[in-house]
Amino acid sequence: MNYFLRSIRITQPIDERTKIDQKWKNLTAVAKNKNPKFVDPVIPFREDVVLCDFNHVYKNIYDKEKYINS
What we know:
Blueprint: H1 14-34, H2 56-68
């Protein structure tokens, strides 16, 4: 028996992603209203950002995935 196995979802439904993105846009708008100098943070979970640039764990996963799929 392996109690440590977990199911991991590797994709996210578009509607779920859209809801989350809208929440962040709303929070950003509130922050900008309260502080006009507010600058949007760099969010690593976007299609145009490589996650391994933000976290060494992602770098290890990225390298392993690249090795397995090559």
